[in-house]
């Protein structure tokens, strides 16, 4: 019991410090995908206007690879370096081929998070890429302990974004709100970039997250590497 209590205290001492404040992600910029997501969001909004606050702006659409807690400027610099170092590994996995990420259908976590699904067969290579990035961050001893298993999905609605709704007893998002799109094709994004983004810094003009660093990979990344 004593040990348990010590552990509990240890945990509570540690916890506040380690909330992730950065994430490594793949931006989604394909117009067809973003337009389809807006269509679904509009449909949900017309059926349930209260959910407006729970919708995520399409300008922020991304696949999260890892989340990190970077407490100092030094750690941010290390993370930038880790991302740059991962480029060679990512290029080796791609072998000069384009990676197509196809989005099809809608899924949910606990009826509280609604997302667009990615085709299973496109996920294998992406999972290897995510692993490569993770290795580079671990090699720099950065805190990525908040990261979950990599499951590529495009979140476009989150109940947690609208805490007031929860207080009013709104605990579940009914699938009837988006059933017209439940098995729809959303589009295909060609993988070309990985970003290190700050969660809490002011977003860019475009509406996308503040980026500390981006690497360009695949066929689009070649010219950029030459310039460097």
Number of helices: 6
The rough form would be described as globular
Q: Work out the count of structural domains.
A: 1
The CATH homologous superfamily is named Cyclic phosphodiesterase
Assigned CATH class: Alpha Beta
Q: Which regions are unreliable across 5 or more consecutive residues at pLDDT < 50?
A: 1-16, 221-228
Structure, explained:
The protein has 228 residues and is an alpha+beta fold. The protein has a single domain, classed as Alpha-Beta Complex (Cyclic Phosphodiesterase, Chain: A), CATH 3.90.1140.10. It contains six helices and eight strands, in the order αβαβαββαβαβββα. It has helices at residues 2-14, 31-47, 73-94, 123-139, 163-167, 222-227; strands spanning 22-27, 62-68, 100-109, 113-118, 153-158, 185-190, 193-198, 210-216. It has a four-stranded antiparallel β-sheet. Strand 3 (100-109) and strand 4 (113-118) form a beta hairpin. The chain is globular, with a radius of gyration of 19 Å. The N and C termini lie far apart (58 Å).
List keywords for this structure.
disordered C terminus, four-stranded antiparallel sheet, Cyclic_Pdiesterase, alpha+beta, disordered N terminus, kinase activity, 6 helices, Cyclic Phosphodiesterase, Chain: A, 228 residues, A-kinase anchor protein 7 isoform gamma, 24% strand
Give a brief description.
The protein is 35% helix and 24% strand. The chain is globular, with a radius of gyration of 19 Å.
Tell me the layout of helices and strands.
Elements: H1 2-14, E1 22-27, H2 31-47, E2 62-68, H3 73-94, E3 100-109, E4 113-118, H4 123-139, E5 153-158, H5 163-167, E6 185-190, E7 193-198, E8 210-216, H6 222-227
Antiparallel strand pairs: 1-2, 1-7, 3-4, 3-6, 4-5, 7-8
Helix pairs in contact: 3-4
């Amino acid at each position: 019991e004593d040990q348990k209590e010590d552990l509990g205290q240890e945990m509570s001492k540690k916890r506040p410090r380690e909330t992730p404040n950065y994430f490594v992600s793949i931006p989604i910029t394909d117009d067809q995908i973003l337009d389809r997501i807006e269509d679904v969001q509009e449909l949900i909004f017309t059926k349930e206007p209260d959910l407006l606050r729970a919708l995520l702006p399409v300008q922020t659409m991304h696949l999260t690879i890892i989340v990190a807690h970077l407490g100092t400027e030094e750690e941010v610099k290390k993370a930038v370096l880790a991302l740059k170092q991962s480029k060679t590994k990512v290029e080796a996995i791609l072998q000069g081929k384009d990676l197509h990420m196809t989005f099809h259908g809608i899924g949910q976590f606990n009826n509280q998070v609604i997302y667009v699904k990615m085709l299973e067969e496109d996920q294998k290579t992406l999972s290897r890429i995510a692993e490569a990035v993770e290795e580079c961050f671990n090699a720099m001893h950065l805190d990525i302990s908040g990261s979950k298993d990599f499951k590529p999905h495009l979140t476009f609605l989150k109940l947690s974004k609208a805490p007031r709704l929860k207080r009013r007893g709104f605990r579940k998002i009914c699938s009837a709100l988006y059933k017209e799109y439940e098995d729809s094709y959303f589009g295909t994004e060609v993988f070309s970039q990985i970003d290190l983004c700050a969660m809490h810094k002011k977003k860019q003009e475009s509406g996308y997250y503040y980026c500390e660093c981006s690497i360009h990979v695949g066929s689009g990344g070649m010219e950029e590497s030459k310039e460097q």
